[in-house]
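User: Okay, second chain of the day. Same drill as before: sequence in, structure tokens out.
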Amino acid sequence: MKSKSQLKLLLEIFTVFFKIGSFTFGGGFAMIPLIEKEVVENKKWVAEEEVVDVFAVAQSMPGAIAINSATFIGYKISGKIGAIIATTGVVLPSFLIITLIAIFFSRFQDAVVVKSVFSGIRPAIVGLISTAAIKVAKASIVDKTGIMLAILSIVLVVILDIQAVFIILGGAAVGLTVYCLFPEKTAKILSNGGKKD
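Assistant: Same drill. Structure tokens below.
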């Protein structure tokens, strides 16, 4: 009975992440809203506060954020096998589609219809990524320090062209410093569950 329910859960994990991989255009960041909708709102496998942490960890690791997030969430739901199933589910659609594109795209890439389709897809992807940024910001920026850190990060990346890994390490250092110097403030932020006062 337990093995049947486990198999059902694994199939569900695969189906959800296959769907995410199949219907999200624009790469990892564009997948964030769909991952959040499926695993937080629909399936309730992960809490909203937890999924923000998952995205933060996934972004700080080498590799694509969507694949890292799928692996992390799959592991949380069903251990190592869950991680493998979720990762396979999210990667498989891209693998199949890119293989077909590699075979046929060179014949059609200059067609007006194909160019028109891609000219419409690009702005939609910007919208998806912007939605993800707004949702993550709402759950992550909970005080003045967070606002300042977010603004500083934008300036460092956009104007000074600092690599993202240094921004992430810097953010971690600031978080650790706040934790060491102001433990009461840290406890208050964490006890609020990512909600502003």
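The two ends are 46 Å apart (CA to CA).

User: Thanks, on to the next one.
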